[in-house]
Design a protein that fits this description.
The protein has about 325 residues and is of the alpha/beta class. The protein contains 15 helices and eleven strands. The chain has a five-stranded parallel beta sheet. A two-stranded antiparallel ribbon has the order 3-4. A two-stranded antiparallel sheet has the order 6-7. The chain is globular.
Length: about 325
């Protein structure tokens, strides 16, 4: 371990041991979905937010609950529905009357005042309610009636959503999507995994995860991740990926120029760097490689690249655009 890694109270070995313990506990209730669990944990350690998308019944909510238990964090679940109001998320001032008849207002905190907030089916709520999360996600504060309240660290929003083509959904605005470090696609389990799920859920009592970490440990893990060095040529590769995701750039791949309306934001570059650093630590390395960047590229960019009308009409996906970028954008420029 380098001297730079030694500046934190946590070692790389302790980091890996904690990650392994968290994976083990989540594995008690979640079958498979290794990449999903890995990417969700990356977002939490980075102190960021994750958006999980998949059809109902794939265990998205169960995964978040298991993670909250394994990390021993204050957990809150908000079920987003079309009639949910912003005050139902942030909290509101309520009037109280004491023994003398004097009336005063007292702030009643909403479910957003937790360490890990599950925003379940976030795209079922109206845009007005969705926007209630913006300040909390970006500033880690909540403002009600011109008074600002700080959220206790650590604070994460793990949101789930159904595919937009399903009924009763409202697309998240780009400004809110960009605040999620990763968008994680939750796929359907294989036949073997489905058999294991059925055995666990239709038999006797199932195993429950145990707490193996806490908020302080997660914060230390995040500090260690940010200390992982990244070479200049790798950072420049990340910058080229982001810049060349925009169709108006002269060096952008032809597929980007033809099918992309808007490219990734600077937050996309931050997500790539942090994700790559964490991928390196998960692998037991204290340096970032090009492969680390590529391993998190889809999760970091799939919600930040918007297709134009032609791309949508021809059935292109952002996954295909990202694959083409990873092939066409050079690692180094001579």
């Amino acid at each position: 371990m380098t001297e730079q890694a030694a500046t934190t109270a946590l070692s790389v070995e302790e980091f890996q041991q904690t990650v392994a313990a968290i994976f083990r506990e989540i594995g008690r209730v979640i079958v498979g979905q290794d990449d999903v669990v890995r990417h969700v944990l990356m977002c939490v350690i980075a102190g960021n937010h994750a958006l999980l998308e998949g059809v109902p019944g794939l265990g998205k909510t169960t995964l978040v609950r298991a993670l909250a238990t394994a990390l021993n964090l204050k957990f809150a679940r908000i079920q987003f529905t079309p009639d949910l109001m912003p005050a139902d998320v942030t909290g509101t001032n309520i009037m109280e009357e004491d023994e003398t008849g004097k009336r005063t207002f007292r702030f009643q905190p909403g479910p957003i005042f937790a360490n890990l907030v599950l925003a379940d089916e976030i795209n079922r709520a109206t845009p007005k309610t969705q926007s209630a999360l913006l300040e909390a996600m970006q500033e880690k504060t909540v403002t009600v009636a011109n008074r600002t309240y700080k959220l206790e660290p650590p604070f994460f929003v793990l949101a789930t959503q159904n595919p937009l083509e399903m009924e009763g959904t409202y697309p998240l605005p780009e400004a809110q999507l960009d605040r999620f470090m990763f968008k994680i696609d939750v796929g359907f389990p294989s036949a073997q995994e489905l058999v294991s799920i059925l055995n666990r859920t239709t038999g006797g009592e199932s195993e429950q995860p145990q707490a193996v970490a806490d908020g302080a440990r997660i914060i230390e893990m995040g500090k260690l991740a940010r200390q992982v060095p990244i070479a200049t040529h790798v950072s420049e590769y990340v910058a080229r990926l982001i810049i060349n995701s925009h169709p108006d750039q002269p060096n952008a791949p032809e597929m980007v120029k033809k099918y992309v309306r808007y490219g990734a934001s600077p937050r996309g570059a931050q997500a790539l760097i942090l994700g790559a650093k964490l991928n390196a630590l998960f692998s037991g390395r204290f340096n970032v490689s090009f492969d680390d960047v590529r391993s998190v590229a889809h999760a970091a960019l799939r919600h930040r690249i918007l297709l134009n009308f032609e791309g949508q009409a021809e059935g292109f996906s952002t996954e295909r655009i990202i694959d083409d970028m990873l092939q066409k954008v050079p690692e180094q420029v001579r």
